[in-house]
Amino acid sequence: MAANKADIVNGSLTRTIFTFSIPLIVGTMIQVLFNMADQVVLGQMAGTNAVASVGACGTVTMLIVNFFCGLAGGVTILLARAIGAGDDEMSGRILSTAVISAFGVGLLGMTIALPLAGPLLHLTECP
Question: Which pTM does this prediction carry?
Answer without folding.
Answer: 0.61
